[in-house]
Amino acid sequence: MNGDDLKVYIDIDIIGGKILIDKKVFAKEMLKKGSYLRQLTKSSAKGTTKKDPAIIKEDGSSFVIIDYNDAANVSLNEDFDQQLTALKEKYSGLIKGRITISLTSHGSVFHVFDFDN
């Protein structure tokens, strides 16, 4: 067995929190093919356990809320930090909130990504 045979698989999932994003930005991103934000609105669960994050559009608010707290996990790629940071920088002031991310292999590590700071 050589080093190439040893592969570590890590499951990376959003397990809670909320993203608040400007309604116009949200609409624009949902229409774009391959949008990373669009991927963040879909649960990775299958069958009866599949429950996408809630998309909340409150009257009088200029923000849409993506709520992960009662949803099934949303899977992320290994480059999640760069992609979330790119969204944060691209829409500075138009995207807010915090999400909790679980990185699991033989144990779990939790990471909070903060769009506000």
Broad shape? globular
Report the total helices. 3
Computed CA radius of gyration, to the nearest angstrom: 15 Å
The SS-based structural class is alpha+beta
Which spans have pLDDT < 50 for at least 5 consecutive residues?
none
Estimated helix fraction: 10-25%
Strand content: 25-35%
The pLDDT mean sits at 88
Main sheet attributes: strand count, strand direction, barrel closure: 6 strands, antiparallel
**H/E element string?**
EHHEEEHEE
Cα end-to-end separation: 45 Å
Number of strands: 6
Task: Outline the structure in words.
- With 117 residues, the chain is α+β, with helices and mostly antiparallel strands.
- It has three helices and six strands, in the order βααβββαββ.
- Strands 1, 2, 3, 4, 5 and 6 form a six-stranded antiparallel β-sheet that branches.
- The protein is globular.
State the main characteristics.
117 residues, alpha+beta, 6-stranded antiparallel beta sheet, 21% helix
List the helices and strands and how they pair.
Elements: E1 11-22, H1 23-31, H2 36-39, E2 54-57, E3 63-67, E4 74-75, H3 80-90, E5 95-104, E6 108-114
Short description:
By secondary structure, the chain is an alpha+beta fold. The protein has 3 helices and 6 strands; from the N terminus they run E-H-H-E-E-E-H-E-E.
